[in-house]
Amino acid sequence: MLGRRGFLGTAASAVVVGFDPSRRAWATGEPAGVLDRVPPLDGELVVDDAAREAVATDLGNIVRHKPHAVLRPGSAKDIATMVRFCRERKLSVSTRGQGHTTHGQGLSAGLLIENKHLNTVHSLTPRTAVVDSGLKWMDLTKAAFAHKTTPPTLTAYTGLSIGGTLSVGGIGGLVGGLNSGLQVDHVRELEVVTGTGDIERCSRTHQRDLFDAVLGGLGQCGVITKATLDLVPAKENARTYALEYGDTAAFCRDLRTLIDRPGVDHVYAELFPPGTNATYKLYATAFFDGAQPDNAAITQGLSAAPQITDAGYLDYVFTIDNAIDELRETIGWDRFIKPWYDIWLPGSTIENYLAEVVPTLTKRDIGPYGASLIYPQRRALTTRPFPRLPKPDGTRWAFVLDINTVAEQAGPDPAFVEEMLARNARLFARARDAHGATLYPIGSVPFTAQDWRTQYGDRWQAFHAAKRRYDPSGILTPGPAIFG
Question: Is the pLDDT of residue 247 over 60?
C-alpha cells in the first residue's frame, strides 16, 4: 500500500513504489527504466490480489473487471491526486460506494476508488446534514433520527452509499415519492473531484452545469466526495396497509386512489408471476406520532381488505436491510447472479404495460430470492435534469418498475446471464418504443451509444459539453460506455 507512513505493500511485504510506464503496470519493486512515483497519500493505494479481486464485480455478478490498483482514500485530496496521476497516464478511474449496480457500471480495469472509506458525518442541523459521500444512508438516518429528523427520501435498501445513489438518482423506496422528490432533489451543495483532478464546490447557484451533470450523472463528470443534504422532521411510527390483488385493473385502480389519498405518506407495490396466490401486493404507509392514522378514511372504497401493521420509524425504514442481511447469512446473497431490469414508465401507461408484461413472466424471471417492485413518483417534485424520466404525458405521475431477477442458486451461470440480458434488452426496447419508457440505469440492460443518446434526448448536448469540460480526457467511469 501507499500511505502517509511510507510505501509498504500488502502483498508479501513488497514495496509499492509507483507506476511503470513501460509495462503499463503499478510497480512493487525497482524495475529497470523510468518509474513514475505516486505522491504521498493520506489513505492508501493497494495493489495486492485480494484487494483487487474484492472489487472486481458488483451486485449483479455479471461483469468482471479487476482493477490494477485500489485507492482507499483518506481525503478528497487523495482522490484529486490520483485522478491527476491517472489522467497523465491515460488510466481509467471508477468510484465504488457499495457496488450496488448490476452490470458493471462502476467497475474499471484501471484505478478503482473505494469511497466507503470517506464516511464521516461532519454536521447535523434541524434542516441539513453535511456528510462524506461514502457514508451509508442507514448511518445518516440513525444519526439524524437521534435528533428527530430524517432524510426526506430514502431508498428501500439503505445500506447504499450517499454518493452512489446521488450518482444515479435515488428513488424513494420506503420514504418519499409521494410528497418528496428523488434523493438528488434534496442536495444543497456538493464537493466534487472532476476528471481534471480539481476539487470543486457546486450548487444550484454556483457552477450549476457541474451540479446538474454530477447529480444523476453516473459518475461521468466527477467523483462526489461530500454533500450537504436536506433533513426534515421525523415521525416516531409507521402504519402500513398491505392489500393483495389478482386482477391488474383492480390493483391499478387502488394504486391510483392511494397515491392521492390524504394521510398516506408512501406507496409501493410488489408484483408476482402468474400462478402465485396474488399477482400484486400494494403497501400504503402513514407516519405518525401521537394521534393514530384514520384507518377508515385511508381504506375507504378500496377493492381489497388490508392487513394493518405498526412499526417504529427505524424498524420500518430498515425492513429491506434486515431481509437482505438474513439472505447474506443464510444463502450467500452476494454470490448470486442478479440481472435486474429497472425502468421509468409514464404515468399514463402503467395499466397497459402491466397488462402486457405480467402475463409473460415466469417464476424464473424473478427467482426464489428476487422481487418485482413498482414505485410511484410525483413528477412535480423532481427538479433535476437527471435521471431521465419519460417525457411529460399530461399526468402528474411516473412509475419505476423493477424486475429484480435473482438466480436460483449461487455461482456462475453463463446461459442464465445470456438469457436474462436478452430478455432485458427485448423488454426495454418494447417499453421504450411502445410505452415511452426510459432506463433507470442501475440494472442490466445492454446499451449502445445510440441508446444513450436516445435516453438523454434534448439533454444530450449539455451532458456531452459537461463531459468535455470536466473530464476532457474521458477517464472517469467507463463502465456504462456512455461516451464511447
Answer: yes
